[in-house]
Design goal:
This protein has 380 residues and is of the alpha+beta class. It has helices at 3-26, 97-132, 138-170, 221-228, 367-376; strands at residues 36-42, 44-66, 72-76, 84-85, 90-94, 173-175, 180-182, 192-193, 202-217, 234-238, 245-259, 264-271, 283-300, 305-307, 310-316, 322-326, 328-332, 336-341, 348-352, 363-365.
Length: 380
């Protein structure tokens, strides 16, 4: 009977002992969440080019399909495929022997007719002398004059035939009509070629300088026309990734009509292409610079976020937390965004790590981005 209270008391003591740590744990303050790592950039003022972007393709400034102008056997192709040639360089030879023989035959015919003309003129002089003494009739004199005129005309035809034969002979030696790059050869030496061959012999394209055609919306045309009155407009050609710059040139002209089916205007630009980074048929992203916005407030484009209420950016506060700041973007070229409203110069905005952020969240700035931000500041 006396053992029962002892057990109850012991159990009560155990219960009192186990409840004390639980009460102490509840009294502890909760630990704060860790800072979220982010990259940042500073809103800065700088001169920003005003670009219009369009898709385009490269075309040779001049392109010539070299064809034979006379029938014959191709005997020589003295240039290499891909070689740069100048205007007048020899690029193909057709067997000239038949055409050289035609020149010789035409010259021989001319010599023969010259001899006949000389004889006809002597006969005319004799008839004229005899006619003065009434030993020849007037009809004989007139007939002989007609003979002299006939041989004179024949001689003129011989001279034309010689010129034509020389022209055909010159066609046997095909020279480059332009300065450019030799393409792939379409026919090998030893083959018979004709002027009607559709593939020709070779194509020569001029790539220095080179041209590009690109399109812009028709609404851009008034601004382009106004900007062209101030001088030549720069055009920058980028690769398909829209990041790799290929070359810089100038706008040559817009087309003389708007494409009514697409509502776009076609423009042509010319590039020096010194390193052959542009090639005929290549697709490019063209940027036409209309002017420059001076002292514009800018942030990296990756800092601009899209929300239900519009655009915003996460701004880092002095307490190393972030706040969600609504902004208005005047222009964004994919690299820099020009801020029209919502930020001030010097504010830090988050450029990476936004997916985990909300207003009031603590952040830890990446050291690499902080060093780059410091270097980007004036005097940094």
């Amino acid at each position: 009977m006396l053992a029962i209270p002892v057990v109850v008391a012991a159990a009560a003591g155990i219960a009192m002992f186990t409840e004390e740590p639980s009460t102490a744990q509840q009294a502890r303050p909760p630990s704060s969440p860790p800072a979220i790592p982010v990259s940042v950039a500073r809103a800065t003022r700088q001169d920003v080019p005003i670009y219009l972007k369009g898709l385009g393709s490269v075309q040779a400034a001049n392109s010539v399909l070299v064809r034979a102008r006379v029938d014959g056997t191709l005997t020589q192709f003295p240039v290499n495929e891909g070689q740069e040639v100048k205007q007048g360089d020899l690029i193909a030879v057709i067997d000239p022997r038949p055409y050289a023989a035609a020149v010789d035959a035409a010259m021989a015919k001319k010599d023969q007719d010259e001899a006949q003309l000389a004889n006809a003129k002597l006969d005319l002089q004799r008839y004229q002398s005899l006619a003065k003494q009434d030993f020849a009739s007037r009809q004989q004199v007139d007939t002989q004059q007609s003979q002299v005129a006939q041989f004179t005309a024949t001689l003129a035809g011989d001279k034309a035939a010689i010129e034509m034969a020389n022209v055909n002979l010159s066609y046997c030696f095909i020279t480059s009509p332009i300065q450019g790059r030799v393409g792939l050869r379409q026919v090998d030496p030893g083959n018979m070629i004709h002027p009607s061959d559709p593939a020709g012999i070779v194509t020569i394209t001029q790539v220095h300088p080179i041209s590009a055609l690109f399109t812009l919306p028709q609404e851009s045309l008034p601004a382009i026309s106004v900007a062209m009155e101030q001088g030549a407009l720069p055009v920058v050609a980028f690769a398909a990734d829209d990041r790799t710059e290929l070359d810089r040139g100038t706008l040559l002209t817009p087309d003389n009509a708007i494409d009514s089916s697409t509502g776009t205007i076609k423009l042509k630009a010319t590039f020096p292409n010194p390193h052959n980074t542009l090639w005929p048929g290549q697709f490019i992203n063209a940027r036409l610079q209309l002017g420059t916005e001076v002292n514009a407030l800018t942030i990296p484009s990756v800092a601009v976020q899209h929300g239900p209420a519009g655009l915003y950016a996460y701004v880092v506060t002095p307490e190393s937390s972030v706040t969600r700041q609504p902004i208005e973007v005047g222009r964004d070229d994919g690299t820099l965004a020009v801020i029209a409203k919502g930020l001030t110069e010097g504010q830090q905005v988050v450029t990476a790590g936004q997916s985990r952020l909300q207003t009031g969240a603590r952040v830890a700035i990446n050291e690499t981005s902080q060093q780059a931000d410091s270097a980007a500041k004036p005097g940094g």
